[in-house]
Amino acid sequence: MFIKSEALEVKEDGEVLVLLGAASPGAAALTPLSSSGDEDEEERAASGGARRPRGAGPGARLPGLGPECRRRPSRVRAVPRSTRAAETAQRLQKSRRLKANNRERNRMHNLNAALDALRDVLPTFPEDAKLTKIETLRFAHNYIWALTETLRLADHCAGAGLPGPLRPEAALLSPVGALGSVADSLSPVSTCSCTGSPAPSASTSPYSCAFSPASPTGSDGDCWPPAAPDQRHCAPRCPVPRDCM
DNA sequence: TAGGCCATCTGGTCCT
DNA sequence: AGGACCAGATGGCCTA
């Protein structure tokens, strides 16, 4: 339901009647049909069409008519009051809708900005690979879990005096390193057992594809829980280098 | 061309 | 009443 704003530039007798999008912030973009410019146009129409070129309006005299036909042109005022009230209500309703649309648009923009901020702190490979919204959320979920698990395992291994596969200091310095470390710890040969999981459904399988954006809940059948320990191929767009997993 | 992703609109609901 | 939030619908863009 979009039209190019420039397509709405209508001229009649050299006079610009409609020019949408020129003053709006998104003038370069597509302009919704229900933009405020549309309302302006409606406003003008409702006020009796005052901009109509001379001689073209409904009240223009017809040539060749006798004096009895030279009546005053019918006025817009002839519209019943109830109709005008209805029109006013309709305009008010439309105005409210447009404002609500704007708020909703801003709200979604804020949401997207937050998602972008989240993408910024997530390690992806290649660097500029952009995760989709759902991937971002799932990956963030798994990433947080992985970092938590890193800390937990580090504590666990340090307390048990085990050499352990983890090097927490390195892991914390590099998010990807953290992922790799946890991935190592989750491997079948790990000396540290892993019981935690970002998803209840995966609690029985420590070999989860925790570092992919795929759903940890497995609701979409991506890879959670995986069928085999090595599930690095399971994510459609795995943001983490395979070497790190 | 089908499917995925996205932005936007819209009406409903809840809250202040 | 107005705003925030939500979910469904719709259409555009992109890719396999």
Automatic annotation (TrEMBL):
Keywords: Activator, Developmental protein, Differentiation, DNA-binding, Neurogenesis, Nucleus, Transcription, Transcription regulation. The keyword Manganese does not apply. GO terms for biological process: axon development; forebrain development; positive regulation of transcription by RNA polymerase II; sensory organ development. One of its GO terms (molecular function) is E-box binding. GO terms for cellular component: nucleus. Residues 28-103 are annotated as: Disordered. This is Neurogenin 2. It comes from Rhinolophus ferrumequinum (Greater horseshoe bat). The gene is NEUROG2.
